[in-house]
Amino acid sequence: MVGIDGASANVAAALTLLQALRRGGLQQVVLCPGSRSAPLAVAAGLLEATGLRLLTAIDERSAAFFALGLGRAIGVPAAVITTSGTAVAQLLAATVEADLGTVPLLLLSADRPGRLKGCGANQTVPQERFLAVCCRWLGEGDSAGLGSMAPASLERLASRAMESACGDGIARPAGPVHLNLPFDEPLHADAAALERLEVALRSEVPLPSLLPSPLPIPPPAALPLQSPLPVPLPVPRLDPDRPGVVVAGPWRGSASEWAPHLEALRCWQRRSGWPVLADALSGLRGQPRLELISAYDLILEAPPPGLHAPQVLRLGSLPASRRLQQWLQQQGRNQVLVSSGDARPLDPLGVVPAGCQWSAGLPRWLERVLPAASSLSASAASRAPAAAALAQRWQRAEQRAQALLTRELGAWEVDPPVPTAPEQGLGEPGLTEPGLARALAALLPEGLPLMLASSSPVRDWESFSGAAAAPRPTFGFRGASGIDGTLSIACGLAEALGQLLLVTGDLALLHDANGWLWQRQLRGRLTVLLIENGGGGIFEQLPIRTDPAAVLDFERLFAMPQAVDQLALAAVHGVPGRRIASPAALEPALRWGLEQPFAVLEVRSDRRTDAALRRRLRTMATREIAQP
Questions:
Q1: What are the pLDDT digits (tens) for 334-348?
Q2: How far apart are CA 95 and CA 93, in angstroms?
Q3: Calpha distance 342→171 (Å, rounded)
Q4: CA 311/CA 393 separation, integer angstroms
Q5: 180: which residues sit within 8 A by CB, 6+ positions away?
Q6: Beta bridge partners of 501
Q7: What confidence tens digit (pLDDT) does each residue in 104-158 have?
Q8: H/E stretch holding 450
Q9: How many CB atoms lie within 10 A of CB 264?
């Protein structure tokens, strides 16, 4: 790089790397502030004129979760750029979720050169090790500095990073990749150097030995998200002519795999007649031409006789319902687990035999298990009597559970909550969390993407939302089931999908209060439906409270209510909001919220009363389902 000063070489190397990432499919970059990362920041700014979407964030943690939402929605990684030091540590929580949730994510951290490591230099930490345990791959630039690397080396680094982040659709799951990139000083190129680089980009004439020749950037659909099976995999088999059930966990495949997955499931059910127990995050609820069981968590509170399944086809990771997990453990070991591109162990119950997890997706499994003619010719009339009888028993239990929920929650017609402690009493008359889940399922427009925050919202949707609701993309981030990053993830999803409704509790929303800062950059519409119940409502559903209550300070140690007006907090950031004071106000408030670029709706409920309502509904469902 003779004749090029060090600062220009750093920026040119960063441009080379980012251009190569773009050729691999990178579309969006989230930039956090810093000096050591200046070459990457300048390069991203220069490439914005060529179509790279550039967003900025002052909080690295929020930035990483925003990029996580983008990656889940579009199926290719967004990149987060940070400076060195503790900034890298802020990426860990999102990296953990991306790892367990198989979300492509690219983390680019600037670092000090190797000569400054381990000698007490300021802001120099072992950051290359912070994320390694959760990453698909850790790529590192030359310890002398990125500006000393040849373009071909930078392109190889980028190519492997994108390949590792996207996975192969068979055995290597998508996930996070960390590129730790040393930069030696000088870091800041002058105006003349930047103008030369900008001219080179605009004229598509690369600077000698620094910039690669521009190549066309492929659209997302052209990315190789799946590859042929490299070697024949052993095919675990189930018998469609004998009784069984399908248990569908959260969908974590890519967007391009969804339609074939859905059609393969329809094909299997058409052939076998097996009922499908569909998790709230499976994407299956509301889908036509499927016979689904949505109330399994209520049905399995005390399973009636006759629901035993001699065979189980499990799709993806395990649903969170503890009752379903206990039931699966009692069904024997004739279980096959089919995942989409994730060959890691996904059976914490230990009931799937060795060799019975297939990671190449349901369509490929079905091709090997069912001949094409057999899969298409079966009808309900030709199903085995025993399989049909099992399906009928499940459907009868489902119908009774849904009828009960419609009767008890259909119009939120429940007794008004009674305040149970001075710091509670937040609930508005008639507003309950189970009732809200039921009502939303009926009111939301078809196809509107939905995100359910961890803790109570996703659990209530699983158990109480209507089985006949319209189909929609439904997201939850339960790889690690944390509440951190909730609002930032929702912003990333809304940015990528165009519109989103987030249903969240008060602590989850407050935990990510910096997420409101996305308001000024967000192009997609986001409506936040906040359930304000004065603290951690999920803890009311656990056996924590004591009798007498004075033995344990439940409110201080577990619920942790926060005296924050979240509508006012959102308003400070320029986000308008409304409080929903009655069931009748829900529909017009939703209509208003969905029309805003960014808005928050607050529903106040009483967590202790709601916990009692959930218990009462479970008791009633057990009695109802057990009737002859």
A1: 999 999 989 999 999
A2: 5
A3: 5
A4: 16
A5: 88, 109, 111, 127, 128, 138, 139, 140, 141
A6: 450, 527
A7: 999 999 999 999 888 888 888 899 999 999 999 999 999 999 999 999 999 999 9
A8: strand 450-452
A9: 21
